[in-house]
Amino acid sequence: MEDDNTLFPLPPRVQPERPESRGGRPRVVAPNRGQIELRSVDLDGTLPLDHRARAVWEYVQGLDLSEVYGRIRAVEGMAGRPAAAPEVVLALWLYATVEGVGSARALDRLTEEHDAYRWLRGGVPLNYHLLADFRVEHDELLSRLLTQSVAALMASGIVELQRVAQDGMRVRASAGAASFRRGPALNECLQDAEEQVEALRKELDDDPAATSRRLKAARERAAEDRRKRVQEALAQLPDVEAKKDAKSKDKARVSTTDPDARVMKMGDGGYRPAYNVQFATDTATQVIVGVSVDNQGTDQNQLSPMIEQIRERYDEVPEEVLVDAGYTKLAEIEWVEVVENVTVYAPVMQPKDPTRDRHQPMPGDSDALAAWRQRMGTDEAKEIYKERAATAECVNAAARNRGFRQFLVRGQRKARAIALWYALAHNLMRTLALRAMVPVVPVAT
After folding, report:
1. Fewest C-beta atoms under 10 Å: which of 44, 119, 224, 354?
2. Where are the domains of the chain?
């Protein structure tokens, strides 16, 4: 039926042709998006009781966030806008990490459009600046939360820390290959950046227009940030030069976008700016017990620092550690075996002499290294070593599936904070799964 009560004439409605069926023309319910609906629903009613967002909120409510509350400047009796509750922002990022959301802008949009994020937000005023800052400002808090969560699982007997598997993965940095420059080019960049900052400051002082001043102030902050990054790149250049031989020192390059990033060989065989992320995982539960992020392109010196980190976190070390061939450095293995008293399961390198049994002690081997070689030749060790791929590589794959493929932040400290978010999100999901597997003992009446 045609409606004449319109401001402008409407084109005639064209009904889509529907194929005839055996009984006549089929009847379907077409969408009517102009229908007015009256709803009376609260936020709590939009989310099922067993939704994982509720589990995230329940976990966050049990955390001690007094450190974050102590930084809030808005206090009762004083002027100032109230701050967003830290537990809300923490819960939002944990849930977003579980769901594979890694952008502050995307998270801000979801808190307006998605029921689970709206429920976690609970009407608290937020913006993407606040979300982005919170994500990287509290790396030490995140590290303590990781320690406390694993310690609680150890106290309940769920995690025994008997056998740990360690593996690393290269995560792309937020920098392009073209941002890497040598010393002379870095000095030119620094000079240009300083001249730009000075010119913008002078222009800002001479401009009386308020709107124009705000725009120029933003440009000045961006130029100042670039100047600082170039200065940091120059400061790190000697360290990069020290790792090259005498003939290649003049070829050392550092990124002006992310001075902490280094060009590394990636899993696909290509070379790109990246960070080396290390996860240590309990093999029995797949709970992450240690996290580190650095810019070393090799895993050879990563074993002993991780064992020391685990000792520092939980005041004990695992009985056994499983690593792949990338960690096989004799000095590292001997240190972990003798000093830390941890049994190492790692592949033995093939000797240059193909006729020699690699599992037999080599001349000059210490007792620890000789025992390691002989141990890795046994069927028992080979069976134990199978747990490495089923644990460490599984955890890394889970992180990749949650979007942990490239950092959207710059700097090693911020990159470590992102890795800790992924570890906390992974452990939260593992804890829920492990607690669900614990049988409920009926209480006698």
Report:
1. 354
2. 43-137, 139-175+261-423, 180-255
